[in-house]
């Protein structure tokens, strides 16, 4: 194969990035069609049940110690004490009575959510890839190596960074707009970094994977941001782990198909 000229490589990269960004809308449309298939509707159950069981287990194990610790911490916050005393003094309600359970929920529920997303990435994504590749990307051969190990490692580090970042930024939730922005950011990070790798790891070679993740970084982040905004709507929690996987699969496999066609033309 003749290596492409430098100017040809640059123009191809720019053109592919532009097409990739425009392909986000196409990926969402294709994913919506794929989601309506019975197999994909059934696949929704696994991450949803894992997230639900995880939430119940976390509440059962950590609710009392967490709320006791938060109550002790809240007693040391002078602002909270002053506000609580003022509200009780005018006969309204105790701020601590409601603040501590809300903070506990804000801590525990995202942990169960990221667990469901990780389960979807590791166990459901292979089902998603088999479904979409057999129907729309049959010509895209599988050239990935160590896909399972790479997927598991990616799910672990993304989950750890998400959990650490979520906990470290909890104090900013006292400023309401900042709390919403941080929620969107961390879930955009989770949806983007978790699913982009699993979408292409089975089909793309290591070299192709590096090219795709670099060239279509903006597109994958756009998908993550849209999914994070949808995540603000509680009913979407049921389908988002699988639907986000479908969107990333369509986007990633289409980008891989274009990359291989581009190399054939250059040759």
TrEMBL record:
Bilayer topology annotation: Multi-pass membrane protein
Record's protein name: EI24 domain-containing protein
Signal peptide: none
InterPro entries: CysZ/EI24
UniProt entry tagged with the keyword Transmembrane helix: yes
Chief site of localization: membrane
Protein origin, superkingdom: Bacteria
Locations listed in the record: Membrane
Transmembrane segments: 40-63, 98-129, 150-168, 174-191, 218-240
Keywords attached to this entry: Membrane, Transmembrane, Transmembrane helix
Coiled-coil regions listed in the entry: none
